[in-house]
Amino acid sequence: MTHTDPRAGDYVVATHGLSKRYGRESALEHVDLRVPDGAVYVLVGVNGAGKSTLFKVLMNLERPDAGTAEVFGLDTGRAGPEVRAQVGYVPERQDAPYRSMTCARLLRHAAAFYPEWDHAYADHLTRALGVRPQRRVGGLSKGETRRLQLVLALAYRPPLLLLDEPTDGLDPVVRRRALALLAEHLADAPTTVLISTHHIHEMESLADHVGVLREGRLVAQMPRDELQRTVRSYRLEVPDAWAAPRELQPTGLRRSSAGRDVQCTLVGEEREVARRLAATGARVRQVSTLALEDAALAFLPEDPS
Amino acid sequence: MTAPAYRTAERRARGARPPLPRLRSVLAEQVRATGHALRGPALIAAALLALVTLFAASQVLSRGVDLTLNAWPTQLPGLMGALLPIAVWARDERFGPAFLWTLPVDRRRHALTKALAGWVWLMAGVALFVLWLLAVTSASGGRALPPETLHVVTSQVAAAGPLDPAALRTVRWAPGPLIWAVPFTAATATYLLGSALVLGSRHPLRWVIGTVLSYVLSSIASEAASAQLRAGWLDDAPGRLLRLLVDSRYGLDALLTARIESLSNPAALTTGESTIVWWGVPDLADWRTATLLWTGAGLLALWAAASRHRERRRA
User: How many domains does chain A have?
Assistant: First the structure.
């Protein structure tokens, strides 16, 4: 269910039939991702769905088996340095490089590779995220490493941020501060963000596009308002032995029943859904919108096995 | 909006892409970062040199030993060159999504730049080592590169058994200042080969152990096969191959010591005395050719190893 027009050219990130296998395991299958300029695109998926592999392909750290990826119109396989110069990347793994360096030394090291590194902003981020400059990288906790990675990714104000579980390992206080800094960052300089997270609710105020990866396939991709308009919770009064039309169910029916009342999440324009339900003998009693997280999760199976 | 943020926004409005770092800046930073990473090994080396210095000083002071510097016998710079790549690359996950590879520099070029940064420190280390040798020699009242009297074996003599002193001719040999280049070129060539191994293979230690094991096993096998099959050409075949690689005219020893090690060895004389005999006079032309060959091979191997990390271009 991809509602973002694949023909339009104004995408910061565009992949075309991207596939990647690790042995017999398929990590990505024919993924056509489209991230519009200036979007905050949230990529959702269970562990192992292929999110990190997709990020690595965009950074040219992994070679796809098929398909191509473009960032700002540049082929990631042919223009790796030019692509990486425009990307702030927070990797999934929380092991910081060069463990014998202090945080300040590592930041100076990274600054040498980005002519537009903003030292004052790096200092600001360092203070705001509570990174202690004189601590050795090897002695940092998981959360501290994550904070340092965020400073490394943001300090040169790249036009694209690839954030792979950026708040993973952060305590609630720092997590909130990190998200506030991200919002501040987006307000300060025009930036496109592709972010993968298990904490979708955190992105409620920032996200404007959503993609769902399931077993390496991009099963949904659309603007956030479209997602929340087309994925809704319906309370129905249904006849005996009623079954919902298959085309309205993203991953099989999520329902809770009480007598002849059924509560379920269905996909489609509300009027069209109501028309189809009526054809099956069901009567819509109430329709309610879903939070971003619930709407996105509608595309993921409740039982991952 | 801060001034840098404003500039960033303005640049983006113009559609300009962020600039790439200049190669000179990348090299300068890699030299600094590699120096940082080499502090540990450097401290260990300094401590060892200090111990040796103390030992030498105690020998000179207590026993009046004359420490005459011989620049040639040392294979240490070559060993330093071979081992340094391990320290240079220890902190990078070469075959994974290392931080190094996420930076906006062409990956092969970046790998070569980092190797070059390590070489800069290697040359500094070798220079310090040579200066230390000179300082120790000078402090002890010895002389650097004094002319040597070599007992050279005439070609008619068989190698086995005690040597007749009449078969030795005496040659006065002064190495010349070019011999000071040997530690630097030896370290450079072994560094290139070591870097190629570390950068090009996921498990360099396994390759080293595997090579040694292969040599031992093939030696045993060739000996057995030679006896069984009565094939004389098989006898000590791996040993001969190794000697070709190490002791031949352009072998490793020509690179590391200008053949001073392989051309000389202690020998018993028919008079009952023993002395160092030479099977030829070292010729720096052999060293020059060996250096060209080994350094060229090292450069090619390093290029091939760095190419394993090149930007992953699709077919």
Answer: 2
pLDDT at A100 over 50: yes
CATH code (residue A291): 3.30.70
Q: Which domain range does residue A264 map to?
A: 230-297
A283-289 and A192-196 strand pairing: unpaired
Q: Do A34 and A55 fall within a single domain?
A: yes
Confirm if A116 and B18 have CB atoms less than 8 A apart.
yes
Cα gap A123→A110, rounded to integer Å: 14
Substitution target in A84, A100, A154, A164 with the highest count of B β-carbons within 10 Å is A84
- Residue B6 covered by a domain: no
Chain A CB within 8 Å of residue B148 CB: no
B1, B33, B98 ranked by CB distance to A109: nearest: B33
Q: How many residues does chain A have?
A: 305
How do residues A203-213 score in pLDDT, each as one tens digit?
888 899 999 99
> pLDDT tens, B99-133?
999 999 999 999 999 999 999 999 999 999 999 88
Q: Which of A225, A256, A284 is the last residue of a domain?
A: A225
Which tokens go with B97? 């999504």
pTM: 0.86
The CB density around residue A62, as the number of other CB atoms within 10 Å, is 20
| CA distance linking residue B80 with residue B77, whole number of Å | 5
Q: Identify whether B85 is part of a domain.
A: yes
Residue range A62-82, pLDDT digits in tens: 999 999 999 999 999 989 999
Interchain CB contact of B2 with A (< 8 Å): yes
Residues A262 and A205 in one domain: no
Structure tokens at A273: 């859904």
